[in-house]
Design brief:
CATH architecture of one domain: 2-Layer Sandwich
Number of strands: 7
Strand order of the largest sheet: 1-2-5-4-3
Radius of gyration: 24 Å
Structural class: alpha+beta
Strand content: 5-15%
Largest sheet: 5 strands, mixed
Low-confidence stretches: 432-449
Oligomer: single chain
Mean pLDDT: 87
Number of helices: 16
């Protein structure tokens, strides 16, 4: 990608609106620059929001003609994809309701309109549900009867994955991200936060499900989390992906949109503070994500929580956002492993940190399956094997380069931490200035000895 163009695109997507100078500079980028940056646009989830912003301003002609035509085709495909997903979503909801499953929809259609004005601006790849643990077996049975196939669990054991009868696959091209035919995955969550070593305690699952309310969006009626619980989940969802070296920029952009949309709702923000204050580590997590969103997309923190965010974000975490936040976000947090420096601040136990760091820096597990044979034919199996080999090679290259960058940055980071520790405490409170040296004995008034 062209990093300067990518950075300028991020600036045009500020929720309060881009400055005129930022839009005016877009014509300075030629077709080659845009083609270099298109893969990044698709990977970040910002391609369709950019097209929307330029259309609203009547400036889509700033895009090279073939780039504009391609994005418009992606938009048309994605509208069809969202319509198909809405049908499947409604069928899944009926499936759970008929089986007596307690659930709340997460992400997806539950984000409309607070996090994005139109479902077709997102390119979703899965359905997410929060379930009471006692409902999990009924949900799994209902999905099997509906011809869904169980794929397995996550490492923490709190998420179960399913897919339809069509096998999942990596999109063959960026354009296929928006294809109605691309298979979707189904995720059943029994926790709002995986039980990892971070000192973060999420909301009570039972309380969150108890507060769930019916939503009616785009002809779909379904239970979803209460607004404050949904925002807390979005914060934790973003932070988890940052720790896992992969968080699409669109996730932060959606939170920025929410901050702008609900900025003046002081009652809502009072509920957020009250809800988060009772959970260890959650205020710091919210402070990091809100500060990062402000750094990356220029979102203004609502007045009602600005002081709370500053007070609850430890200085080391705020320093990480300041030093590395925009750089890491520009690469969708997958270009390096510097988020380990941030994660360290959330893990107080030294032994737990060493185990977590070792696992992330030296991942000896088998890479995820990137491709599956579409048929038993030899040609199909060879194609899948070649794609898998390329995927393994790319991951090996990433781990090597990212590990070296981490090793280079670690002493610089420690030095920066020592510098701030001289002037502020761990919560960012400025330490009092040192007292002047004591007056030597024998000194009396008027300077006479």
């Amino acid at each position: 990608m062209n990093r300067r163009l990518a950075s300028q695109i991020m600036n045009t997507l500020r929720p309060a609106g881009p400055a005129e100078s930022e839009i005016a500079d877009l014509p300075s980028w030629n077709r080659r620059h845009w083609l270099e940056t298109l893969p990044w646009l698709h990977a970040s989830g910002l391609a369709l929001p950019v097209l929307r912003v330029l259309r609203e301003r009547g400036q889509e002609d700033l895009l090279p003609p073939d780039v504009r035509a391609r994005l418009e085709r992606n938009q048309a495909d994605n509208r069809q994809r969202v319509l198909r997903m809405a049908e499947e979503f409604a069928a899944l909801n009926r499936c759970f309701e008929n089986a007596g499953v307690r659930y709340a929809a997460l992400k997806g259609f539950a984000l409309i309109p607070d996090y994005t004005p139109d479902a077709s601006l997102r390119a979703p790849a899965d359905f997410d549900y929060l379930l009471a643990p006692e409902s999990l077996s009924r949900a799994e049975q209902a999905l099997r009867e509906a011809s869904y196939i169980r794929q397995g669990r996550d490492e923490g054991g709190t998420t179960v994955f399913f897919h339809s009868a069509r096998p999942l696959r990596i999109p063959a091209s960026d354009d296929e991200l928006y294809s109605p035919a691309l298979p979707r995955r189904l995720e059943l969550h029994t926790s709002l936060w995986n039980p990892d070593p971070e000192a973060i305690r999420a909301l009570s699952l039972e309380a969150a499900l108890e507060r769930a309310r019916l939503r009616d969006e785009q002809g779909l009626c379904f239970p979803a989390l209460a607004d404050e619980d949904a925002l807390i989940f979005q914060v934790l969802h973003a932070l988890r992906h940052i720790f896992d070296f992969w968080c699409r920029l669109s996730t932060l952009h959606e939170i920025a949109w929410f901050l702008e949309r609900r900025a003046r709702d002081e009652t809502f923000w009072a509920r957020i503070v009250a809800r988060a204050e009772d959970e260890p580590g959650l205020p710091a997590a919210a402070g990091v994500v809100f500060t990062l969103v402000s750094k990356v997309f220029g979102a203004s923190l609502p007045t009602a929580i600005a002081d709370w965010v500053r007070g609850k974000t430890p200085r080391a975490m705020a320093l990480w956002v300041e030093r590395y936040g925009r750089e890491c976000a520009l690469e969708n947090f997958m270009g390096n492993k510097l988020s380990l420096l941030l994660r360290r601040e959330f893990i107080p136990d030294a032994a737990a940190w060493r185990a977590a760091a070792r696992k992330r820096l030296l991942p000896f597990h088998r890479p995820n399956r990137a491709a599956q044979a579409a048929s038993p034919r030899i040609s199909s199996r060879l194609t899948a094997a070649m794609k898998q080999s390329l995927h393994v090679a790319r991951r090996a290259k990433f781990h090597l380069a990212a590990g070296l960058r981490y090793a280079w940055e670690l002493p610089r980071w420690h030095w920066a931490l020592r510098e701030i520790s001289r002037t502020v405490d761990s919560h960012g409170v400025e330490k009092p200035a040192p007292l002047p040296p004591a007056v030597p004995r024998g000194i009396i008034e008027d300077g006479n000895v």
